[in-house]
Design a protein that fits this description.
The complex is a heterodimer of chains A (77) and B (222).
Chain A: E1 2-9, H1 16-27, E2 39-45, H2 52-63, E3 69-75
Antiparallel strand pairs in A: 1-2, 1-3
Chain B: E1 2-7, H1 14-23, E2 27-32, E3 44-47, H2 67-77, E4 81-85, H3 87-95, E5 101-103, E6 111-119, E7 135-142, E8 146-148, H4 151-159, E9 163-167, E10 178-182, E11 188-191, H5 209-221
Parallel strand pairs in B: 1-2, 1-3, 3-4, 4-11
Antiparallel strand pairs in B: 5-8, 6-7, 6-9, 9-10, 10-11
Classes of the chains: A alpha+beta (77), B alpha/beta (222).
Chain lengths: 77, 222
C-alpha cells in the first residue's frame, strides 16, 4: 500500500523560495501568478495494514517540522 | 576539561571546531554520528557546521535522529553543555533542545561574510566573557539561517533573556535579529555565526576566542 504526504509551509510563514518562483514567473510574463508557495510531496511504500495513525506519527517525528510546516496525508490503496 | 566534537556525514567545520576547543585548552574527542555514547567525562559537546546528510529533507533533520544525537540530548537533559554552530544550530532546533527553526535566508542567497553581532545576554558561560551590549565581529556562511519561531515562543525566548547574540544588520530575515539562542538553563547555545573561524588573527579576527576560553575556564572550575 502507498501513502502520499504533502508538506507545506504554514500560512503566514514567509516562503522566500515561493516568492522567487513568483517573481520569475512574472519575468516570463505570467503576471496572472499572484502568489506561489512551494512544498514537498513524499511518497511512502507501506507494509500492508499500516494505519494513517502510524503515518501521522512519521510526520510528527520526521517528515514535517511542525514549527513551520503543516502536512496532509492521503492514504492510497 | 573534555570536549566532544561530532562529525556527521557532510560536516565540514568539525576540524575547525576541534582546533578552537584545543586552542582553549580542551582535550577533544572526535565522535562519529553512529556512536551511541559520548566519551566518559565529556563536559561540552560541539555540533559543527556543514551540510549534514546533504541537508536532505530539512537542514539538520536527519542528523537530529542519529544515534549520537540521542546521546547529546541525554547529556543536555542532565545539565550538560552543548554548542551548535551553523548546521549544528539547525540540528539542535530539530532535536527540540532549542526552540524555533532556521529557514531559508529571506534574500534566498547563500551569505558568506563577516557580520557584526551584539551580545544580548551576559548570564551564560558562552556570553559572559563579552558582557552585555558588546559588539563583536564573527563570520557567517549559510543558506538557511533565518531564525523563525511562533509569536508565543519568540515572546518566551525574549522574556527569559535567552537571545545570546543579535545581528547588528540582519542579513537573513531572522526574527528579532536573532543570531544565537540559549536553552532555558543557559547551557545549550545555538548560533549561526562561526566563532571557531574567528580565533586566529591570520584569519581576519579573534572575537570568537573569548567564547572558547571562557568555556575552558568555567569547565576547569567545575
Amino acid at each position: 500500500m502507498k501513502a502520499t504526504v504533502h508538506v507545506m509551509l504554514k500560512n503566514g510563514v514567509l516562503d522566500p523560495q515561493g516568492e522567487a518562483i513568483r517573481a520569475s514567473l512574472g519575468t516570463l510574463g505570467f503576471e496572472s501568478a499572484l502568489g506561489v508557495r512551494q512544498g514537498k510531496i513524499i511518497e511512502l511504500d507501506l507494509a500492508d495494514g499500516t494505519t494513517e495513525d502510524e503515518v501521522t506519527k512519521m510526520c510528527e517525528a520526521l517528515l514535517a517540522n511542525t514549527v513551520i510546516e503543516s502536512y496532509r496525508i492521503e492514504m492510497g490503496a | 576539561m573534555k570536549a566532544a566534537v561530532v562529525t556527521f556525514p557532510g560536516s565540514n567545520c568539525d576540524r575547525d571546531l576541534a582546533v578552537a576547543f584545543e586552542a582553549a585548552g580542551f582535550e577533544v574527542a572526535r565522535v562519529w554520528h553512529k556512536d551511541t555514547e559520548l566519551p566518559q567525562g565529556t563536559d561540552i559537546v560541539g555540533l559543527p557546521g556543514g551540510f549534514s546528510y546533504g541537508d536532505y529533507l530539512r537542514c539538520g533533520a536527519i542528523a537530529a535522529q542519529s544515534p549520537i544525537c540521542r546521546a547529546v540530548a541525554a547529556h543536555a537533559e542532565k545539565g550538560g553543555y552543548a554548542i551548535g554552530i551553523c548546521n549544528g544550530f539547525q540540528v539542535l532546533c530539530e532535536t527540540g533542545l532549542l526552540p524555533g527553526t532556521l529557514m531559508r535566508n529571506a534574500g534566498i542567497k547563500f551569505i558568506c561574510k563577516t557580520v557584526g553581532l551584539r551580545v544580548a545576554n551576559e548570564d551564560s558561560v558562552f556570553t559572559a566573557p563579552y558582557g552585555l551590549g558588546t559588539d563583536i565581529e564573527i563570520p557567517v556562511a549559510h543558506h538557511d539561517g533565518n531564525f523563525y519561531a511562533d509569536d508565543a515562543t519568540l515572546a518566551a525566548i525574549e522574556a527569559e533573556g535567552r537571545v545570546a547574540f543579535r545581528y547588528l544588520e540582519n542579513p537573513n530575515g531572522s526574527l528579532g535579529d536573532i543570531a544565537g539562542v540559549l536553552s532555558s538553563n543557559g547551557r545549550v547555545l545555538g548560533m549561526m555565526p562561526h566563532p571557531e573561524r574567528a580565533i586566529d588573527a591570520r584569519h581576519g579576527g579573534t572575537d570568537g576566542q573569548a567564547l572558547f576560553t571562557a568555556l575552558a575556564g568555567a569547565m576547569a572550575e567545575a
